[in-house]
Amino acid sequence: MHRIDSTLTEARERGVFSAAAWSHGTAEGPSARGLVGTLSWDGPAVEEHSRWDLASVTKPIVAIAVMSLVESGHLTLDDTIADHLPDYAGTDKATLTVRQLLSHTSGIPGQVPLYASSPTREEMLTAIRELPLLGPPDTAVVYSSQGFIVLGLMAEAASGLPLDRLVAERVSAPAGMPDTAFGVPDAQQRHAVATEDDPWRGTVVQGQVHDENAVVLGAPAGHAGLFSTLADMEQLGRTLCAEGRGRDGRMLSPAGHRTMIEPRTDHLNLRRSLGWQGQDATLSPAGDLIGPRGYGHTGFTGTSLWVDPDAGRYVVLLTNRVHPSRTGDAIVRVRRQVHNLALADS
User: Fold this and answer.
1) How many CA atoms within 13 Å lie on the side-chain side of 168?
2) Helix (H, G, I), strand (E, B), or coil: what is residue 159?
3) How far is Cα 173 from Cα 2, in angstroms, rounded to an integer?
4) By its UniProt entry, which SUPFAM superfamilies does this protein fall under (predicted)?
5) What's the Cα-to-Cα distance from 218 to each of 147, 172, 209, rounded to whole Å?
């Protein structure tokens, strides 16, 4: 048994999650991979075609689509929100830019449970527009799901495409990710990995998005809602290791990829590039062995993708650490262990 399988099996025995899938490799393909556990605590074994709720790993995938729109001239990084969303003209967010939204330096609050007070899509979009900024832009990194919801709306307005089609055409298709999409087809829902026994919905969530704000928004959103398989996430890792060259075409040019992963906030409290986390000084989810230009993202449900561009390696870890409850933080150390084992195995 691979040491990563052993580590994840031990974590499952401690109740950290019921299911896990992992892979590490290069642009040429996986070096090692594995599946552990069951779709739910009393469910069938996790399989290759099992669908995982990526949660906030949706954000960097949307960011790739946005960078593709920059390459095609539909957007520039200095475009403002009001340039594309007229409803924001005259608000405190009118002059915030694509660059600031991507790097979480806009000042828009994040992690706000708007679903509790805004039960319809229109009410939630109004609430986001009216959220007071936490401070001036470019003065702090403040992780903002609400900022990425706005970014997704901007991408739709600039491209004339709904976000699901934009991501499919600009990311999934060239990278070779046929099973990555917003939501899960009805016929595949029983193959999805269970997430929370959600008191808000009164049931165990399986095959539907875990994020409550995304549920209220209904349509695809920029902050959460994508589902994927291990094989598709491997393809994304491989494509990023190849500077945007995917199995079925170019996802990004080398220049676009380089611009996306360049650290932008080293003068602030956290390292961020355009849509991605960087390697922070302590307690990085990427572990201890990733290189200084490493970048990646985590998802609240227990998912992550990290890339070391200097070593040319990716690491995918998919779990359902919110099943049956979102309480507990044991996944933090497990993530670091898995990344250390994967990068030492290269």
Assistant:
1) 11
2) helix
3) 32
4) beta-lactamase/transpeptidase-like (SSF56601)
5) 17, 21, 10
The pLDDT value given to residue 207: 97
Q: What six digits make up the tokens of 324?
A: 């049956």
Give the alpha-carbon dihedral of 291, 313, 263, 113, to 10 degrees.
-110
Q: CA–CA separation, 313 vs 333, rounded Å?
A: 21
Give how far Cα 173 sits from Cα of 164, 237, 250, 338, Å.
12, 14, 9, 29
CA within 13 Å, CB half, 31? 18
Q: Is the pTM of this model over 0.85?
A: yes
Gap between the Cα atoms of 113 and 213, Å rounded: 7
What structural domains does the chain harbor? 3-344 (3.40.710.10)
Tens digit of each residue's pLDDT (9 = 90 or more) over 39-84: 999 999 999 999 999 999 999 999 999 999 999 999 999 999 999 9
- Give, to the nearest 10 degrees, the angle between helix 145-159 and helix 58-71: 40
10 Å CB burial of residue 182 (0-12, 13-18, 19+) is buried
| Contact predicate 52/229, CB 8 Å | yes
Contact call for residues 305 and 315 (beta carbons, < 8 A): yes
Q: Which structure tokens are listed for 34?
A: 């594995």
| DSSP string of 42-104, one letter each residue | TSPBP-TT-BEE-GGGHHHHHHHHHHHHHHTTS--TT-BHHHH-GGGTTSTTTT-BHHHHHTT
Of 205, 212, 215, 221, nearest to 52 by C-alpha is 205
pLDDT digits (tens, 9 = 90+) for 151-209: 999 999 999 999 999 999 999 999 999 999 999 999 999 999 999 999 999 999 999 99
26's CB contacts (< 8 A; 6+ apart) are 238, 241, 312, 313, 314
Query: How many residues does this entry show for the chain?
Result: 346
Interval 239-298: pLDDT, tens = 999 999 999 999 999 999 999 999 999 999 999 999 999 998 888 999 999 999 999 999
